[in-house]
Structure prediction request, 468 residues.
Amino acid sequence: MTTTARPAIDQAHWQQRLDELARAHQVPGATLAVLRLGVDGTEDELVEAATGVLNTATGVEATTDSVFQIGSISKVWTATLVMQLVDEGKLQLDAPLAEVLPDLQLGDADVAAKVTMRHLLTHTSGIDGDIFTDTGRGDDVLEKYVAALADAPQNHPLGATFSYCNSGYSLAGRVVEVLTGQSWDATLRERVIEPLGLTHTSTLPEEAILHRAAVGHVKAGPDEELQPTTTWLLPRSLGPAGLINATARDVTAFARMHLRDGLGPDDGVVLSAASTAQMQQLQTELPDTYSLGDSWGLGWIRFDWHGERLYGHDGTTIGQNAFLRVLPAQGLAVALLTNGGHPRDLFSDLYGEVFAELAGVTVAEQLEPPAPAPDVDIARYVGTYERSSITTEVFERDGRLVMRVIPTGSIAESTGATVQELELHPVEQGLFATRAPGEETWMAAVFYSLPDGAEYLHYGVRAQPRKA
Prediction:
């Protein structure tokens, strides 16, 4: 960590920038926390800011002690629980999960016999990742959820590629329950939330309502106004994959533990230094190195920003988005929590400024289509690509490649997601850039084949197999 003298973080400046950028990107409410570890015996710095409202229907103001849904940032918390069990010798990352869950059944019996915890934490199991089965509100939700995975489609062969997998983290949460003898929620509270002194972090709606809780905002259509969502939370069965509620401050406190080699606020060991390091190390490469990071650790996403190594995670629930980036070389962690609008554009602009001004680090450039457009063979990609919650039709229109994204299943109903048509702008053969109407940030769409010849479209960090 650098020990160069540095000016204090200017809270007023970052409050102003959060206000301005949230308005510019139509984000109803947001909170920001910037944590920088002290050096040479100095105290840590923590700067917080909040802007807008938690709910446009009620006008309740967003404050720094407001709780938002951090979505899939929760996965790193679940991975932390898993690594605690590894530290205690209760679990091995590369042992078949069937040793802990002998009754495990999946759509592919061979995968059920061979899948490991490392596959789950690195999103390489191939289990269809967006299965949002609602198994109720009781403490047995994960047990029931895992039982329902008996019919889960296999998206790709075990370990063959990366595809973002919520289902795998709910399965990991069930392993945690079996090994600890209590619910994932209770285990997280006992092993992470309380040791870190996180007073505004919870996993259940009856806990979140005790605080100022944000409501997500969505649009019924591209030309409609943002409205508060009528469904506040995803099913409890998705807890280990994305149901933590927290303040931005608490999110950076969790990151602080990882920055300090697993030590809590009283220097107590929450996670071993070896496991903390292993979570940040390269575990698997990504087919798409543009949309999020360039690779994955155990839970953490890894980012290369012009030679600077960061780790972090994003989170998306129903109308809420969260972002966490950690720069270990400078002891810097930044959390942004939002509740609608164009949050990724806000994140892109704000984090670009924060890391440039506080750390002298330039955010990696986003993918953009070159001009003039390269000459690529687009006909080879025409077809239908499908996974459990999305059908993607890729077709030609006026000499251009277009993909029609069709949400399906229960998640489409709960989020109000609608069909989108997105033009695919060629970057090079097999790589295209696209973005939703009104968005400034480009995302990648990658067409590729596995060694066995199976063809896939990688979009939204998920592998979608091409239908025959």
About this structure: The domain at 12-365 is CATH 3.40.710.10 (Beta-lactamase).
